[in-house]
Amino acid sequence: MKFTSPAQAETLAQVKTHPYQATSFYLDTDKSRQPLKAINAAYKGLLNQARLTLETRDLSREVKKSLLEDLEKISQFCTNRLNSWKAPGLAIFCCSARNLWQELELPHGPRNRLIQDFDFYTRPLSAILEKFKKLCAFLVNRREAFWYEIRMGEIRLLDSLTSDVPKKVKKGGFEGYESKRIERHIDALLLEHFKKAAQRTFEILKQNHFDWLFLGCDDQFYPQLEPLFHTYVKDRLKGRIKARPGTEASRVLQECLDLEDRLKREEEAGLVKAFVAELERGGRAVAGLADTLRKLNSHEIRHLLITHNFSKPGRVCPGCHGLFLNEEACPTCKVKTEPVADVVDEAIEIALNKNVPLTQINPPTRLEHYGNIGGFLKFKTPR
Ligand SMILES: [Zn+2]
Q: 289 alpha carbon to ligand 1 midpoint, in Å?
């Protein structure tokens, strides 16, 4: 099943598996960024790690049996299905004792994770929902207007409008009073059509809470149309597209997705640029895993930046939950730290729990030259 709506995430979040536990599995299956061999190695690594963790956990025989069965089923699914799996991400939610199994095709590669806990772990689904903007494509010519909704890679026609505006009279020939009068009449009808379309655009944007608006119209109409937009519409207008009324929906979709991707990359590049500038002038920024974790432990991070799917093993303090790259003992609690398979994932959890803004940057990015992780700081660090 494709993951397309918040309702799917909410339903999963509400499932109760008590007294048994639930398995949540996320795999980055984006074959445009990595070979199948790497994807296979990643899922096997997750399953092995989960089996080891399960052995050490103090659980009843039935609960353990169900969790082990989950791992076995996920392993079989991956062996049989990953070869032909098309989506860039896979999520599986299961509880064998309760006979629950749900697989989802994700529109974006998630961080690789396997979590066995009391509930299904759905936070990455919310993160994907947030990542995808809700787009409106507004296509207009001198007679027609179309509005499409684009969400999570799917397109849907929302509304359309047709006005009876006749073709413009040809210039030249005799320029009599009558032809001037007709021309003015047509101009008035055209303006009326644009006014109606602009008003409808405002209503549609408000009703559906769109993030961005993309406009498809001829250059000659733009100066007439733009002043008719409400400020609310102008604020959301992010770009122009080549599609026009009559363009096939699949082409409208592709053009919008391409533009969305480009705009997001520009946004991310801008953020990284500001980060690097701050860092290089010795301002309020920190880079590299060890230093960033230290600043995260001391609540000094204002905004965390991470290269998408960067991961590293590390250590966690069982006392204060401080995160470390290498420290064998926690400098605060003086107790022995415990190894974790992915300390970056732990850092993301902490950021989410403490409401620290977090941006995962798609590679290639300059952030890779700065240790793949960093953050803007609340205060300036004394040098
Ligand atoms: Zn500690």
A: 18
Task: Give me the amino acid identity at 336.
Answer: K
Which residues neighbour ligand 1 (ion) by CB within 5 Å? 317, 319-320, 322, 330, 332-333
* pTM confidence score: 0.78
**HSE, side-chain direction, 13 A CA sphere, residue 118:** 2
In 3D space, the residue among 335, 292, 340 whose CA is nearest the CA of residue 316 turns out to be 340
Residues 309 and 360 in one domain: yes
- Say how many domains are in the chain: 3
Provide the residue range defining the domain that includes 61.
6-131
Over residues 264-291, the mean pLDDT reads 96
Q: How far is the CA of 270 from the centre of ligand 1 (A)?
A: 36
**332 part of a folded domain:** yes
CA 251 to centroid of chain Cα atoms: 22
Name the residue among 346, 364, 360, 368 with its Cα closest to residue 127.
360
Please give the pLDDT value at position 180. Answer: 83
Contacts of 50 (CB under 8 A, 6+ apart): 71, 114, 116
Q: Which of 131, 152, 175 is the last residue of a domain?
A: 131
Average pLDDT, the chain: 93
End-to-end CA distance of the chain: 53
Residue 329 confidence (pLDDT) above 60: yes
**Same-domain status, 103 and 27:** yes
